[in-house]
Amino acid sequence: MIKKVGHTIQKLKPSLVPLVANEQSLKICKEMQGLSLKNVGIFLKDEENNKNIYEDFGEMLFTHFGVSGPTILSSSAHLLRYKDIEQKIKKNKIILEIDLKPGLSIEKLDNRVQRDFEKYKNREIRNSLQDLLPQKLILPVLKLSKINEDKKINSITKEERNNLVKTLKSFKIRIKDFRPIEEAIVTAGGASIKEINPKTMESKLVDGLYFAGEIIDVDGYTGGFNLQIAYSTGYTAGQ
Ligand SMILES: Cc1cc2nc3c(=O)[nH]c(=O)nc-3n(C[C@H](O)[C@H](O)[C@H](O)COP(=O)(O)OP(=O)(O)OC[C@H]3O[C@@H](n4cnc5c(N)ncnc54)[C@H](O)[C@@H]3O)c2cc1C
């Protein structure tokens, strides 16, 4: 309707939306489906340019399609605006790194792992990481660290231990896609703000036409910003 009366529409895209893992990472996500992690560091990276796209700390969740939860939803808002994102995703260059132990440096974490190894030295490694990790994470972490899960702690090499520490600091999931717009919390894009008077929300092109809420090309993070946009623009237009 607004297009018909001459308004410009910025391309609609999903924002605040879960992310889909590629085939290789999907297996791992499925194994951990339902597992919610608190107090983790998340880093979205463009592997091609070795660039950090987004960095956050907080909660995330593994699902049957990939990853979700507050930090992931916020990261999606940055990812969708990243230059050439569609090509990067197609080329498998977007990677999510999860720091499972953000409070510990590599060195401190290594000391901690060594203490646990000492405590459980006669066990298989799969039965010795429960002080450090939730049960559902243990086998995927060992897989990514290339350590045989049945190996006895006292035969783990230094290289394997280093791999384990690296994986704990940087658990990698490759991103293949965004979930569809129907699952997005908010739509990015919409009626161009250039054609709307921000003091009244009236159209600059058509007298008596007012805009409010998500139809306008504005969107924010979770945390009430989108509701605030809807209320404030609605109030202004109403006045
Ligand atoms: C699952 C979910 C969780 C969210 N959580 C948050 C959050 O925590 N914090 C936050 O800030 N935002 C959140 N949002 C976003 C926020 O709800 C929206 O940005 C906000 O509600 C947009 O308000 P609106 O009035 O512009 O549009 P809407 O709330 O979508 O209202 C549009 C209304 O128009 C009606 N309508 C559509 N077409 C027609 C038609 N042709 N004729 C008559 N009526 C029509 C629709 O039925 C609807 O009632 C969430 C969204 C979703 C989906």
Bound molecules: flavin-adenine dinucleotide
Contiguous low-pLDDT stretches (5 residues minimum) are none
Oligomer: single chain
From the alpha-carbon coordinates, what is the Rg to the nearest angstrom?
23 Å
Provide a descriptive summary of the structure in words.
This protein has 239 residues and is of the alpha+beta class. The chain has seven helices and eight strands. The protein has helices spanning 23-31, 70-79, 85-90, 106-119, 135-144, 158-169, 225-238, and strands at 9-15, 19-21, 36-46, 51-62, 66-68, 94-99, 171-178, 186-191. The strands form two sheets. Strands 2-5-4-3-6-7 form a six-stranded antiparallel barrel. Strand 3 (36-46) and strand 4 form a beta hairpin. Helix 4 crosses helix 6 (158-169). The longest helix is centred in the middle third of the chain and has 14 residues, at 106-119. The mean pLDDT is 95. The structure holds flavin-adenine dinucleotide. Flavin-adenine dinucleotide (FAD) is lined by residues 185-186, 213-214, 222, 224-227, 230.
